[in-house]
Amino acid sequence: MTISPTARPTETAGAADWLHCPRCRMLLYRRRFERELSVCPDCGHHARLDARARLDQLLDPGSVRTFGNLSAVVEDPLDFTDVRPYRERLAEARAACDLDDAAVCATGTVHDHQVVVVAMDFGFMGGSLGVALGSLIEQAAHRAREQRHPLVVLSASGGARMQEGALALMQMARTSQAFAALDAAGVFTVSVVTDPTYGGVAASFVPIADVVLAEPGARMGFAGPRVIAQTIGQSLPEGFQTAEFLLEHGLVDDVVTRAALRPALASLLAATRPKRARRTGPVPLVRDGADLPRRGAWESVRAVRTTGRPGTLEVVEEAMEGFYELHGDRLGGGDCRAVVAGVGLWDGVPVVVVGHQRGATTQERIARNFGMPRPEGYRKAARLMRLAEKLGLPVVTLIDTPGAYPGIDAERRGQAHAIADNLRLMARLTVPIISVVLGEGGSGGALGIGVADRMYALEDSIFSVISPEGCAAILWRDAGRARDAAEALQVDAASLLRHGLVEGIIPVSARSGDEVADAIRVTVSSALAQLTRLAPDELLARRAARYESFGTRPAAGQEVAR
Hints:
The protein is an alpha/beta fold. Helices cover about 40% and strands about 20% of the residues.
């Protein structure tokens, strides 16, 4: 592993008030540099901080309370000596850092939100993971579980501590086990990756947090770049293992500057605390297709393909507060921008939102693959839904896609598998799921985020097993008969309502985009107020009965549970 010796600013000789930025060599005034949270104002380089500085920057003033007991830890379990005894190295690190080991545990608040924090310190033997650090992580996880407060870990490490041999290696399992216990208890976890985070720390508790944020330029990986280059004999790509590289490959949720970290955490903490929905006023729904303007199925098909329709981000902007978008499938597949996923407050209720985004301009549509998800998009959605299950948050999905992307790479990466996994997952989620069809509901690509307790549709939206053109080409052997296919397939919202596939239609005629988004907000809020009062077993039973009812007639004297 290669760790740059210039990660910290260097003092200019004879001028204690001045520093040189290690990246751009800009001369920095120390007091300004400290006011800027040790970030170079010229190039944006985030200098390393010790553990106590991390806590002071992150937590509200006066809220920090440190804890941690290492009395049970054997100091030198192997009686290890290399060129120096391990005990001497420990004593030196403790004196230099004024720490017992490579982290400080604390409780405190972030914008008044209670948290438990572990701040690691690279200055203490490279932040290496040994028995003592493993014990501190475990103690912090136990405190978070006991107090039901989120756990935040600020990582900085070169890997496992070699002087403790296999005992250090086992701390990877110990800390991961502690995080697994937090998962079982439904306690929210966040990792903040700082530079550097390598080896055993990067391969254990850091990447398995519910949300993984990273400082700009922070490096994270199992093996360091020098080891990789020497082992495989290849040059590494530009920016390899940096936060930006990790975000591009779907391995972290976001890259957040040091100045933006506190607000980002506050948004996440506010949006992940379960809360029962309030009852709302009248819902602007159409329950009878006869009350809709007369429109043929083909007219609806043409309408949903026009530009200017609101996508997930536009609805979220109008209907929600504190929405925080999360990225990536955490499997190295990348971040599919056709699927938007995140957490936020829907009329004050924390929810997970997953939806399609086509894009407004040609350039954005290309970047978002015209709203056609790749496998990593469905896997990102699944990751967020599992987070919703863990934290007890309702799921809201917003549908508008021509279908799943049919490309060669998508098939190679398991497009069908990803959709099938989502259908199974959504069938068994014990939290409410509400779907709204904003435009085009294209086949399994739409259903991959559309298994729900309640589904609503905008008045001019459609949902179909196949595109009218595709159906006409196969069955009529003439793609030009798409109009006939659309009418025969009954893809329009009125037909969906008549067949019981949606619970109601949201009118859009003569409404602005803001008014449509507000109608969606009220509709979802009303459904949340009803569904969040159901016990998980009843919710699952009703969801199963909903799908069993499609295309069937209830037995005499029976009603389908809705």
